[in-house]
Design brief:
alpha/beta, Rossmann fold, Pyridoxal-phosphate-dependent protein
Length: 382
């Protein structure tokens, strides 16, 4: 009798606990879930890797691109600026009392610095050439950056926009972010961009292709990827006029456009922006590059319109240069390779120049987009 009572009590207790557990789960499920409170800086990185079906079909390789235009500031420069700002705060170079960030840029870094700076309580002063696409000035002005426009000139000139930014920052006691030489640039691509690519490809990457402006992207990605898989080939995509490809291929950072007297008066002549250079930066010196390809303006233009029509991708000029070099890499190393490149930003910042027929004509580039549904080939990539 006593034993039966104990069994009944145990059964009741078990049933009660079961009811409690079910009720608790129901209660928890109907409670208002906490919304994740992410800030602008938290949205940078972890971009998608897109499969480029048209380029892959025509080359016999699998070609992918990292969609850096999906960052909140619209370009890969978000990553660099995030790391530079965080490191500067850590080192005491930026604070509530030290609010000014100075930088010399061809546009995208200035936009990323200003957007992030605004979200974190900092003010930017941006020094830049006066011949950039108008969209970049409008964006920066709308975001309340202080702009200093200067005539384009060689880095050896004291009036170069980067040197002016550095010198003025020192005079004003401001933080010079120094995207070209600041190794926070290399660091962020080693620690984030490269790791994302390696994870997204499950380590099956054979070739990485990237242009170089500051050198941070190709340096960080090449160093990390080769540390994981030494046989991966790293290819530099270089626009006309830049001398970096000669450094990679021949060991001399020089091009014909740098003849005596010319370099002091004119930067190299290309309609692309934010890519190519006539000097080696500290970031670029960290790169491990196997080969470099020249990509002409004409090739980049053709590729940009090819990708619009066949992939639905409206990209900036440097992305088109990268895509051309990816095709050249596929031809060099053969079918069956997995190739990854970078799509740095969208075409929205280049409507007044790279995608403007009048501007192209003024630069001697006569170009009418073809119907690539009828001419589905890559013969324009030489």
């Amino acid at each position: 009798m006593e034993s039966q009572k104990l069994k009944d009590v145990a059964l009741i207790a078990t049933s009660a606990f079961t009811v409690y557990t079910i009720a608790k789960k129901i209660y928890q499920s109907i409670q208002k879930k906490q919304i994740e409170k992410k800030k602008l800086i938290d949205l940078i990185g972890n971009t998608h890797l897109i499969y480029l079906e048209s380029l892959s079909k025509l080359t016999g390789c699998e070609i992918y691109a990292k969609c850096e235009f999906m960052n909140p500031g619209g370009s890969i420069k978000d990553r660099t600026c995030k790391q530079i700002i965080l490191d500067a705060i850590k080192d005491g170079e930026l604070s509530k009392e030290k609010k000014f960030i100075y930088e010399g840029t061809s546009g995208s870094t200035g936009i990323s610095l200003t957007q992030l700076g605004n979200s974190m309580g900092f003010q930017t002063k941006i020094f830049l050439p006066d011949d950039l696409a108008q969209e970049k000035y409008l964006i920066l002005e709308t975001m309340k950056a202080i702009l200093v426009k200067v005539k384009p000139c060689s880095i050896v000139d004291s009036q170069h926009y980067c040197k002016l930014a550095e010198n003025q920052a020192e005079v004003d006691g401001a933080f010079f972010s120094d995207q070209f030489e600041n190794l926070s640039n290399f660091k962020v691509h080693y620690n984030s961009t490269a790791k994302e690519i390696y994870t997204q490809t499950h380590g099956q990457i054979d070739i990485f292709v990237s242009g170089s402006g500051t050198g941070g992207t190709i340096a960080g990605v090449s160093r990390y990827i080769k540390s994981k898989k030494p046989q991966v080939k790293v290819i530099l995509a270089d626009p006309q006029g830049s001398s970096l490809r000669n450094k990679v291929n021949y060991g001399i950072c020089y091009t014909g456009e740098e003849a005596e007297g010319h370099r002091l008066k004119h930067p190299f002549d290309t309609i692309t922006e934010g890519i190519g250079l006539n000097r080696q930066t500290d970031n670029f010196n960290e790169a491990q590059i196997d080969k470099a390809f020249l990509v002409t303006d004409e090739e980049a233009l053709e590729m940009a319109h090819f990708l619009i029509q066949n992939e639905g991708l409206f990209l900036g000029s440097s992305s088109a240069v990268n895509a051309c070099a990816a095709v050249k890499s596929a031809r060099l190393y053969g079918k069956g390779k997995t190739i990854v490149t970078i799509f740095c930003d969208s075409g929205m910042r280049y409507l007044s120049k790279f995608y403007n027929p009048q501007y192209l004509e003024s630069k001697g580039r006569q170009y009418t987009p073809k119907d690539y549904s009828k001419e589905f080939n890559l013969d324009f990539v030489l």
